[in-house]
Amino acid sequence: QVQLVESGGGLVQAGGSLRLSCAASGRTFSSYVMAWFRQAPGKEREFVAALRWSGFNIYYADSVKGRFTISRDNDKRTVHLQMNSLKPEDTAVYYCAAGMRENSRYAPDYDYWGQGTQVTVSS
What we know:
Shape: globular
Number of strands: 11
Radius of gyration: 13 Å
Helix content: under 10%
Strand content: over 45%
Order of helices and strands: EEEEEEEEEEE
Distance between the termini: 40 Å
């Protein structure tokens, strides 16, 4: 079993920054892909960014490329999402997820999910 706990959400003005964290516990993660998704009210859950826990494959949604950075801290078993130049359209609940399928941007491919953390960007 895998447990994921997100933190770091909040309210920020447009142009500001936030750093989300996802603490992972449970079984070993070396083969897992760790991802961030987000879901705005009335919209489907959408892919944001992902990386493999071991390895260097990192990929982003076009809407966040150049503004968001995903990274991992192996010692602390934590994945971060640094979000810069935030826009009101980034407002959503952000979820951390873990799965086995490489390069997937498809939510059903991910087996484990955190509870989500709210990010609100005011204009």
